[in-house]
Amino acid sequence: MELNKLTVTEAQEGLAAKKFSAVELTEACLRQVAARDSELNAFITVSDELAFAEAAAADQALANGTAQPLTGIPFSVKDAICTLGVRSTGAAKILDNYLPPFESTVISRLRAAGAVLVGKTNCDAFGHGASNENSMYGPVKNPYDTSKVAGGSSGGSAAAVADNMCLFSVAEDTGGSIRYPASLCGVVGLRPSYGRTSRYGSMPMGSSLDTVGPITKTAADAALIMNIIAGQDSRDATTVPDPVPDYLREIKQAITGLKIGIPKEYFEVAELNPTVQNVFDSTVERLTALGATFVPVSLPHTKYAVATYYIIVPCEDSSNLARLDGLRYGVRAPGTTLEEVYSRSRALGFPEEVKRRILIGTYALSAGYYDAYYKKAQAVRTLIKQDFDEVFTSVDALLAPTAPSPAFGLGEKQNDPLALYLADILVSPASLAGVPALSMPAGSTPEGLPIGMQLIGPRLGEGRILQIAHQFAKV
Fold this sequence. Notes:
Blueprint: H1 8-16, H2 22-40, E1 43-46, H3 48-64, E2 74-78, H4 105-112, E3 116-121, E4 141-142, E5 145-149, H5 155-162, E6 168-173, H6 179-185, E7 188-191, E8 211-216, H7 219-229, H8 247-250, E9 259-263, H9 266-269, H10 274-289, E10 293-297, H11 305-320, H12 338-349, H13 352-365, H14 371-391, E11 397-401, H15 417-421, H16 428-433, E12 437-444, E13 450-456, H17 462-473
Helix pairs in contact: 2-3, 5-6, 7-17, 11-13, 11-14
């Protein structure tokens, strides 16, 4: 048995039945990291000593009957999420040697539930990108074809799960950073509703959009992880007090009678690869066979989503990243004045895409331009949210492709920032509206590259889209 290929649910059952130990399970994952990571570059930091210590503690808990829901399950974390005492760089040299003295709430909850941290995964620096080529530690490569991108910004997390280096990963989605790489790597990626999970300890990019969620092998695993990480956090005022449902119970329900909308604008704003269109059509057929009904719906402001996103996020970026100055950790360039130290350190410590977004955001927030750009973008964002609110009065969920195409070649779009921005065209609308969205594996190209389909639900409707994805995977 190749233990690292198990799902979280299968591993839980095997550990409980004493078919293998947590140490053996962790060892299997770390062997895969050692064998493949030099090729894929999915990890920035591998915490093998910590992982074995936590796995040994997990075996002790299993032996004395104090096991928790995730005891002994190996997982990874996107490097833009802080882990106590474990290097957290955000994939930027300006934080190269940063060891957080605190931990993300989501990670604290997972470790309290017994999960074993095997390492920190590569990402576009601070989440800035759609291809994971903007990391200062090198690009992540797609496990299905190493000449292709893994998708961004959480490409390391998606690649690690797809290549069985861990059983699940925790990542962050601002405008599609969980769903897009999940689609390109053939795994499940869930962006929860804004406020459903805590952002405390997540390096802020676009604070009004950032959301922490799981990347897993199955929808059932995502439901299990959400049962643990969802809920209000006193350290994050944006989390909601609504009770957390039992997602594992909800996904078991049949989808007979559910009404799923097909947003026509998603097929107008994006030029879909023909294979993506074929996979979408077959997904509709499979869900129809399960009892779902499909209806056309309209989200009229979809065409403004990318432009709106790429005004709001750089503005919030420029504010959030102002705190990183090169004085405390990471790159620190010499200078005769404080201003020189700041400017030279930031020039060396930030990659080009981060600098680009800081400049765009600073410009859009400057005197004379705030009303014309940021304020107007927020007004359009409200209209996009209202579109979703209206649609969900008549349907239970929406279905659309996650990405317009399968994974593209490394370097293919690196010198064309606008082309990379347009990669977010199908994932950014749900982010702006703050609603949950999930990418699930649905097919592949003739060459074997994965293609994902996106389910979008009403606010706090994670259970519904997990239910549909789970039932879809069973047929």
